[in-house]
Amino acid sequence: MKLKNAKHERFCQEYIIDLNGAKAYRRTYGDIKAARIQACKLLTKANIGERIAELQIARAKRTEISQDRVLKELACLGHSNIKDYVKHAADGFIQFKDIDNISEEDAKAIEAIKVNYKEGRIEFKLHSKTKTLEMIGRHLGMFKDIGDQLAEIIYQASEKYMPKKINEKK
Fold first, then answer.
1. Are 111 and 127 contacting, i.e. CB atoms less than 8 angstroms apart?
2. Tally of structural domains, the chain
3. Rounded distance, CA 62 to CA 66, Å?
4. Do both 119 and 149 map to the same domain?
5. Cα dihedral across residues 3, 5, 6, 12: positive or negative
6. What is the pLDDT of residues 27-84, one digit of tens each?
7. Would you state the pLDDT for residue 39?
8. 158 CB-near residues (< 8 Å, 6+ apart)
């Protein structure tokens, strides 16, 4: 439901453009030095968070883009295999398979095909598997940043070695 405060509504609309609170705050309220701090304060408000979630759901429906769909696309790229596109010819050379016989899933993984008729050369490039698999892994929580690991180590150490009185909240 649209927020009653027009500035808060505009902030939410601006926020979903790039998911950058400081930029959204500046676009809404002008070039303010403390935009990052003010954006953080707004983003902690329940009604702001709920409105942003509503807007994101509406956009997902409108564009028919979901996390599942993005993950499926990434999986096509990440699990691509050059053997799906080429084969060994009888003369020992590599031959490209007929493009009409490549599945839709395999076709999505092709980044570029360049044909140089003068030199009789074809360049064929698939999307980067490394970057794609990293994106999938991060989404699934397989990789943790060093900061996350350090914070976890400090937390576990504090639980194990600090006296209970220090750890207990009063």
1. yes
2. 2
3. 10
4. yes
5. negative
6. 999 978 899 999 999 999 999 999 999 999 898 888 888 888 888 899 999 889 888 8
7. 93
8. 167
Say if CB 36 and CB 21 are below 8 A apart.
yes
What is the mean pLDDT of the segment spanning 111-122?
90
Note the pLDDT of residue 167.
Answer: 46
Q: How far is the C-alpha of 143 from the C-alpha of 140, rounded, in Å?
A: 8
Residue 82: burial class (beta carbons within 10 Å; 0-12, 13-18, 19+): exposed
Report yes or no: 96 and 115 within 8 Å, Cβ to Cβ: no
**In a shared domain, residues 75 and 57:** no
> How far lies 69's CA from each of 65, 76, 80, 124, in Å?
6, 11, 17, 26
pLDDT digit string, tens, across residues 117-158: 999 888 889 998 888 888 888 877 777 666 666 666 666 666
Same domain, 57 and 73: no
Q: Which domain holds residue 14?
A: 6-63
Please name the residues in contact with 13: beta carbons below 8 A apart, sequence gap of 6 or more: 55
DSSP letters along 9-64, please? HHHHHHHHHHS-HHHHHHHHH-S-TTHHHHHHHHHTSHHHHHHHHHHHHHHHHHHT
Note whether 79 and 53 are same-domain residues: no
